[in-house]
Design goal:
Pfam family, one: Glyco_hydro_94
CATH architecture of the domain at 7-314: Distorted Sandwich
Shape: globular
InterPro entries: 6-hairpin_glycosidase_sf, 6hp_glycosidase-like_sf, Gal_mutarotase_sf_dom, GH65_N, GH94_catalytic, GH94_Enzymes, Glyco_hydrolase_94_b-supersand
Domain Glycosyl hydrolase 94 catalytic: 320-718
Helix content: 25-40%
Radius of gyration: 28 Å
Largest sheet: 11 strands, antiparallel
Number of strands: 43
Organism: Colwellia psychrerythraea (Vibrio psychroerythus)
CATH superfamily of the domain at 7-314: Glycoside hydrolase, family 65, N-terminal domain
Strand content: 25-35%
Bound molecules: 4-O-beta-D-glucopyranosyl-D-gluconic acid
Domain Glycosyl hydrolase 94 supersandwich: 78-297
């Protein structure tokens, strides 16, 4: 492979970004992802694919070669030789040589390789055997189907005879019934199965399931093969025996593991090319295949589908575009971050019962893209609140949906998120009408205003405190697997106590800012309660240089220097800055302790040292591998809380430094192992215990980080934050960023801005369309109007506190 840069960031004609990886070996786990409201596929540069669809619960149509446990999408997904994938064997009939594209399973070194991630497509451009091959996949706006194009061109002066063999894995579908054969009338390999069940009731429940997987081509195959084991034979996937013969054997699978393989023998004259279209996906029955073929097969149908899907994904365009003279930073902030944020708000991590904290935070991000969706989501969330104020573990998005997995474990924090995340919705829209919406409860048809629902949630939190005024943790707070601190009903959480104080203060601030009509006594009660909680946290949980993480059922304070492992947790420190519990001295102490113990080249770890053995009064988190997920990884959701908190206390340089560490880039790609197209939920931590693996990406793009990161960029770094009277301007650019320009869409006004730091001014100066602005709120912005905003800031000092 020639020494091309590992990857490049190009810009498409439509201004959107295109990431191009030049090697399938250097970043073997590199992936991109595509989705629509009913399916998601994570595509690996070597050809492996992890995909699922909703019916309405998550289901597969391309399975692993053996029975798989149904679970939520896991971090650090591992690939293995028979992992589901979309491969193309290509035989040079003249030389007999066989390769596989895009790289797996034969792993032949290719003359040219490029794995390209676009906004709404994933493509490989490959050259080998004197052939130029393009492989492209896109999804559709609303259907459960993968649309593939395979194009091969003869670049040589001599005629070439080839066979192309798309090999789409179907895998082990069912222990009750699975089979596959070629259906001539559909020109498709059709694999039928029956979702296993034993209860009569499930027969009727399963009748609607899409238990059939099909692979259809626009070209009649020379031959086909639908039987996994027989296709491989003794040669295995690296040297499938079925490819030795001139033609595939047209072999069915009969209660044998299916596969979809077709053979297309194709002579190519010099400069001649041949293009194939393939459709792959789940259906309930073959009549659906016909409809999908009509809709998507054929040049014009394909162009229409690509255009519609492109428009669908392009809805992810958000309200900020920046130019910081750092192309990779700008590319991520302007394209890939809003795309990931939209994915979260659009498909709720492909769950029918998203955890309430995730649902509310993910929809906070949607306020920067499509605030109407945020409004609907918040109303739905409070409509599932109990009349006693308790918010549900998960928000049911479907009439048949049930609370599953982690949502069957009682967590104490779901009530804090609405008052906290509502501020972004109101700052972006000033839509106080939401607050007077009358909404029922999960367990009562009584209607109460949105304001009342918020206050019931806050009151429920305040009642869920112990004699010290600290919040009970039950079997977990924001940290899901911290399940044994309070399972006996006594353990308390420092983080949740501080988050409750922050939620109370945030609600009171919103009431002031938007003149929300709440009872003055209630308002005073909340301010007093927040103070009391902050005082209690300081009294019982400040230890030396930082705040402890909590107190167990048996009264043990943990998360202090006295602990061998889990000495310091990041969240209590961050949220003590947000709630106001930490004074300036404590802030400096904590920041120093965090810099010494938690900061790594890839960002800030959520705790250290990672636990290496079970701690029975803390729980499952301590059983996770050190440096993985909540057990001391660089858990980006916790890291962004810290960055947001640093901005609130004027630590703008450190905040920006840590924000840059969080973003995947060319510089850190060889460590993270990923391409800069999403923020992973974590990078491996345990930096001082397992440095070898530290920094590796989890490759899991489901994370609550995106909306908070976008909030930091819009409201803090650029400091273009909405308020009741307009757009408040208060940039927090670091000393390292001389200039920052861009465009901010605010309540449909288009504000082009230039922010620069200069010795010529001692205080911030604002010019709007060359008019000096007194104060720092732009109150006259009209929807649809364009404005030019110049912000001149006094020189920002290197030392952190501004
Ligand atoms: O799930 C996330 C949750 O979606 O863990 C976060 C929590 O705040 C998010 O709401 C921190 O605990 O159950 C487990 O052990 C998993 O680790 C989940 O906690 C975790 C998933 O892996 C997704 O990251």
């Amino acid at each position: 492979m020639s020494e091309l840069p590992l990857f490049t960031i190009d810009t498409e004609l439509d201004g959107l970004s295109r990431i191009k990886l030049s090697s399938p070996i250097k970043l073997p786990n590199a992936t991109g992802y595509l989705w629509n409201r009913a399916m998601v596929m994570q595509v690996n540069c070597r050809g492996y694919v992890n995909s699922q669809f909703m019916q309405p619960e998550p289901a597969k149509y391309s399975y692993a070669p053996n029975m798989e446990a149904k679970s939520f999408i896991q971090p650090e997904h591992s690939y293995f030789s028979h992992h589901p994938g979309r491969f193309f064997y290509l035989k040079d009939e003249d030389s007999g040589e066989i390769i596989s594209l895009p790289y797996e399973p034969k792993r032949v070194q290719l003359d040219k390789f490029s794995f390209e991630l676009g906004n709404s497509d994933i493509t490989w451009l490959i050259e080998h055997f004197g052939l130029q091959i393009t492989i492209k996949v896109n999804l559709t706006k609303e259907d459960l189907i993968e649309c593939w194009l395979f194009s091969v061109k003869n670049l040589t002066e001599t005629k070439k005879n080839i066979s192309v063999y798309p090999y789409f894995s179907i895998g082990y579908m069912s222990w009750m019934n699975q089979s596959a054969t070629f259906d001539k009338s559909l020109n498709a390999i059709v694999a039928h199965s029956v979702t296993p069940y034993q209860k009569v009731a499930d027969y009727f429940a399963n009748k609607q399931l899409k238990d059939t997987t099909f692979f259809l081509s626009d070209t009649p195959p020379t031959a086909w093969h639908a039987n996994q084991k027989d296709f491989e034979g003794e040669g295995g996937l690296h040297q499938p025996s079925a490819l030795v013969a001139e033609n595939l054997g047209n072999v069915e699978a009969r209660y044998e593991t299916p596969v979809a393989v077709m053979q297309f023998q194709q002579p190519l004259l010099p400069n001649e090319h041949k293009t194939y279209q393939f459709l792959f996906g789940p259906v309930k029955d073959t009549s659906e295949i016909d409809e999908l073929r009509e809709k998507y097969l054929g040049h014009s149908q394909r162009q229409k589908a690509i255009k519609t899907y492109h428009e669908y994904i392009s809805q992810s365009e958000a309200c900020l575009t920046i130019n910081s003279n750092n192309d990779s930073f700008d590319d991520f902030v302007n394209h890939w971050l809003p795309r990931q944020m939209y994915y979260h708000g659009d498909v709720n991590r492909l769950s029918t019962d998203p955890q309430t904290r995730n649902y509310i935070q993910d929809n906070m991000g949607m306020a920067f893209i499509n605030s109407k969706q945020t409004r609907e989501a918040y109303i739905l969330a409070v409509s599932q609140q109990a009349i006693n104020g308790a918010m549900p573990e998960g928000v049911l998005l479907h009439s048949d949906a049930k609370l599953k997995y982690i949502n069957q474990v009682p967590h104490a924090d779901h009530g804090v998120w609405l008052p906290i995340c509502l501020s972004v919705y109101l700052n972006e829209t000033a839509d106080v009408s939401l607050l007077s919406e009358m909404i029922t409860f999960a367990d009562s048809s009584q209607e109460q205003s949105f304001i009342c629902h918020i206050e019931l949630a806050l009151d429920y939190l305040l009642n869920a405190t112990d004699r010290r005024g600290l919040s009970f943790i039950e079997q977990g707070d924001w940290c899901d697997p911290m399940n044994m601190v309070g399972y006996k009903g006594q353990g308390v959480s420092t983080w949740l106590s501080l988050a409750t104080a922050y939620a109370l203060n945030t609600w009171c601030d919103l009431c002031n800012e938007y003149n929300i009509d709440i009872n003055q006594q209630k308002y005073n009660e909340y301010r007093f309660a927040a103070k009391a909680i902050n005082a209690a946290v300081n009294k019982y949980l400040w230890h030396g240089q930082w705040f402890a993480r909590g107190i167990t059922d048996d009264g043990r304070v943990f998360g202090t220097d006295k602990d061998l492992e889990g000495k310091i947790f990041l969240n209590p420190q961050s949220w003590s800055m947000l709630s106001g519990a930490a004074n300036e001295h404590q802030q400096l102490d904590m920041i120093e302790a965090i810099s010494e113990q938690l900061i790594t080249p890839q960002g800030v770890m959520m705790l250290a040292p990672s636990y290496t053995r079970m701690v029975e009064d803390i729980g499952r988190i301590t059983q996770k591998h050190p440096g993985v997920s909540e057990n001391g990884s660089v858990y980006n959701h916790a890291a962004i809380f810290y960055i947001y908190a640093l901005y609130q206390v004027g630590q703008n340089n450190l905040a920006f430094e840590l924000l840059c560490k969080m973003l995947p880039s060319l510089d850190n790609a060889e460590i993270t192992g990923q391409l800069p197209v999403y923020i992973p939920n974590y990078y491996r931590g345990a930096f001082y215990q397992f440095p070898e693996q530290a920094g590796r990406s989890s490759h899991l793009f489901n994370t609550g980080t995106t909306s908070w990161l976008y909030r930091c960029l819009v409201e803090e770094l650029c400091g273009l934050k909405g308020c009741a009277s307009g757009l408040r301007v208060a940039p927090k650019i670091p000393a390292s960023l001389q200039k920052l320009s861009g465009q901010r869409i605010f309540r449909e006004a288009i504000v082009n801005f230039d922010i620069e730091q200069t010795k010529e001014v001692l205080n911030m100066e604002l010019l709007l369309d060359k008019h000096i602005i007194t104060g720092n709120v732009l109150t006259c912005l009209q929807a649809g109007q364009h404005y030019q905003l110049q912000v001149r800031l006094p020189k920002v000092s290197e030392d952190n506190v501004q």
